[in-house]
Amino acid sequence: MTRRISRAKQAIKDSGIPFGMPPKAERAERLSAVLHVLYLIFNEGYVSTSGPSLQRTELSAEAIRLTRPVHRLLPENGEVAGLLALMLLTDARRQARTGTDGSLIPMAEQDRSRWDADSIAEGVALISAALPRGNPGPYQLQAAIAAIHDEAPTAAATDWAQIMALYELLLHMSDNPVVRLNHAVAVAMAKGPQDGLDLLDELETDERIAQDHRLHAVRGHLLLTAGDPVAARSSFLAAAERTTSLQLQRYLYAQAARPAPDSSAG
Residue 1 has what pLDDT? Predict the structure, then answer.
């Protein structure tokens, strides 16, 4: 690592590029890259892609720590405020996301009294101040969605219609498969599982996510909700085979092992 740093320093010196703020025309692009990296660091900390633990709190905490000075330097930038709000509103659920053995607890089953009220209040205040400025970007919309989740007193009280509408706005700005997957979940919760499953059928042709465990996990959940536990089991197993997170694998295998409802009962 020391040799790499030394080579990088020498390369910068040899290039003759001065160390300082980029020209105004380049700042938006540079800022966008910085925010994206911070977003990726936070996500890897909140949901680790591999290893024995579901989350790496040191990464998500560091992402929040680094985003705060960016917000202090650019207090009027809505996307900076939106990213910080998104991180705070998401991280607020961290303590309730895992059981004593480190196992995953889905949001609908979490003890909301364990959510961090201070982080939620700070995140809601940030996004509430940013949105009225107009022209919200992707981070602001995601923060608004997170705020709806966090302010709902129970999972059943979640305003899924509003979340669905926000995802539709987000699709116009950032039409990527993960946004479309989350939109499908919101549609299923607002309108019914079959509507969500129909949207998942469209995603299966997108090679960027067709083999992603998240697509199969969502399908399994919606099939279970729709009353098809046999097909749901197949999807949960497919999802478990495609993730390298050990805790997520445990959760998915547990979902696949859930007994089918007794059709003779009642």
Answer: 77
Name the residue range of residue 114's domain.
31-153
Is 66 inside any structural domain?
A: yes
Whole-number average pLDDT of the chain? 92
User: What are the CA-CA distances from residue 219 to residues 72, 198, 206, 208 (Å)?
Assistant: 41, 10, 15, 16
Same domain, 235 and 129: no
Tell me the two tokens of residue 238. Answer: 């497919």
Distance (Å) of CA 150 to CA 114, 116, 121, 162, 194: 12, 10, 10, 14, 26
Task: Please list, in sequence order, all residues whose beta carbon lies within 8 angstroms of the beta carbon of residue 64, skipping any fewer than 6 positions away.
Answer: 42, 84, 87, 88, 91
Is residue 181 within 8 A of residue 219, CB to CB? The reply is no
Q: How far apart are the first and last CA of the chain?
A: 66
List all residues 6 or more positions away from 224 whose beta carbon is below 8 Å from its beta carbon: 232, 255, 258
Q: Render pLDDT for 221-253 as a digit per residue (tens, 0 to 9).
A: 999 999 999 999 999 999 999 998 888 999 999
Regions of the chain short of the pLDDT cut 70: 19, 259-266
pTM of the model: 0.87
- Are 142 and 191 contained in the same domain? no
